[in-house]
Amino acid sequence: MDRAPGHLSRAIVTETPATRIKLITLGNPGAGKSALVKQFCEGAFSSEYVATIGIDYGVKTLSLTAPVATAASSPTLVKVNFWDMAGDPVYQDVRNEFYRDTDGAIVVFDVCSKISFQAVDRWIAELRSYGDERVRLVLVGNKCESERRLISAEAASAKAEALGCRYQEASAMTGKGVHDIFMPMIQTITYVRQKTTTKPK
């Protein structure tokens, strides 16, 4: 992912009120968090690894159709705010300032790294220490295209089940599974938000 300011897709200027969602990515350095966000936002991949410094930010605007939008309404406009957290321990104090008001968290590990996988519990603990316990969570095994894989899908699925969340395999390089990381979470958060705001008094 390029590190020039504003490298993630920016919001589309519109007069239509939009639902705003805050998603964060967590995981060890090199797990591919930024690459997954770039692939989802831009449909692009860069093989050059440049570590995130502190926090990276971007916005992607989506137009969601039914079942999120009601039959009597136009498609729902959603602005997804991505907060890409640096994985280096030196940035922990910086990360801790950004957990508040998070709607969804994507915890990423590298399927080729046992250390990355073993760190998942630590990332979940950090999230729950500084964020809302009701934050929606998905565990992602990145780099599933690699022949050097060390973490099986079965082991990762068991970890996700223990955490009470969904597991998704993905490849930021090929794009496989990337859509399925983000869209179910975005759709669910939007649907719940709509039900809450339209609930009869």
TrEMBL record:
Record carries keyword Lipoprotein: no
One Pfam family from the record: Ras
Q: Which Gene3D superfamilies match?
A: P-loop containing nucleotide triphosphate hydrolases
Q: Which UniProt keywords apply?
A: GTP-binding, Nucleotide-binding
The protein's GO terms of the molecular function aspect are: GTP binding; GTPase activity
Query: Which stretch is the leader sequence?
Result: none
Q: Which domain of life is it from?
A: Eukaryota
Q: Which PANTHER family match?
A: RAS-RELATED PROTEIN RAB (PTHR47977)
Its recorded name reads P-loop containing nucleoside triphosphate hydrolase protein
Record organism: Caulochytrium protostelioides
